[in-house]
Amino acid sequence: MKTINQNYKAIKESYTEYLQTLGFSNSVIYNYPIFVKNFLIWLEQKGINRINQITTKNVFAYFNFLEHTKGERTKQTFSTSHLNRQFGAIDKFLEFLHQIGLETAPIPTCYLLERTRKKPLHFLTQEEIQILYNTIDFTFSDLTFNKREARQMTIKLMLDLCYGCGLRRTEALNLKISDINFDNKVIHIKQGKNYKDRFVPMSKKVYEGLYTFVYQYRKSYPEHNRSTYLYPFGSNSIAKTIEMLVKKCNNEEIKTKKPTLHTLRHSIATHLLQNGMDIENIARFLGHSTLESTKIYTHIINEYCD
Which residues fall within 8 angstroms of residue 265, CB to CB, at 6 or more apart? Predict the structure, then answer.
């Protein structure tokens, strides 16, 4: 295993403590120092053995090196999202160096690669979203009325969360009942993607749906391992939610799009943009770390809605 000199090792350990102090998630605290260690090893290989020798030119040379490097396991170049995480780790490291008084350290670059998509990004129209809501009544027809109604409400719950609130699938899955503030009509998303908390407002329709589910239907699912969570089942069940609706609905256009729960998130973002919400507010609503992630929806509108 490659190691770094004692000077770099001490800096790396202090950087880890800095991330902990800022309250980053365990995932960031684990991965960012690894990314920085790899950067420091690369610097040593270039004959740069002290922190005060690092220049902006070194940083961008390393970024270029990463963009053309293949993973040892995959034998493929790194994905855009993985590269951006590494760039973010280095930027946070440069920020840390300035915090400890190293004024000669390079300024954080804010360098990001624009994501390219191999597959077109689909969204559902507002009419198609309504078709999915209407299709809920035709699911679980083999169950008794009480059981059928309770299961149907779990499907509506996912539409309300992933479309009405724009949550990611994992955010909806990990949402706890205590994270919902019915008094203020907001949902607290804890440690979402990009390792940041955010508060998501509930519309009147979503508020009424979640309130009804929590106080009327959630008690139908007393499973101990999910008792504190809003959604009563596991990840396998949540993934099949929209598949069931698409299969039941009588709409070939929807079936052709093969929507997923993430399609619902794309859909609400597109609809908000179409209805005039500014892109900065949409970014906050979705929990995007940069506007670049949100700007894909302007491309969707230009492509499909002209």
Answer: 162, 163, 166, 167, 168, 286
